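Researcher: Here's a chain I'd like modeled. Treat it as a single chain, no partners, no ligands.
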Amino acid sequence: MRKKWRLVLLHFFVGIGALAGGTPAILDPFNPMGMPADALVNGPFNSFLIPGLFLFLVIGGGNIVTSILIVRKWLFYSYTSVLMGVILCLWIIIQCYVLSDVVFLHLLFFVIGAVQVGLGFRYWQAEGRVLISQDIVKLTHIFKNKKNVS
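Model: Modeled as a single isolated chain. Structure tokens:
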């Protein structure tokens, strides 16, 4: 578990950052943190509300939940880690396209997302997970057993 703290801290850091970035976009969708809505040149939105909600709920909430799942040693934490890393990388790529700009934070968070994917796969392999279908079968057995207990 000691090595997994790096992954926990990465997910927690991204989650807190996304919550902090999504909140202003939700509260002031036309000018969050001084960024005018006109900056959404290549995007489908005329305000930052939908991107802010996605940033807050999916990236922020998802990364916080993933850090909790890792600490609690949930069976599928490595999948959620990989998933959140992929979502973060895609978010950064789309954000750079929509804003027509690339800054240091974009590069930093893209690298962090790639590291989340890499560490997630590493822990997935280290735990002997070979096929996702085997884990899906385990998950269905877990839910069936919980229903039988109730």
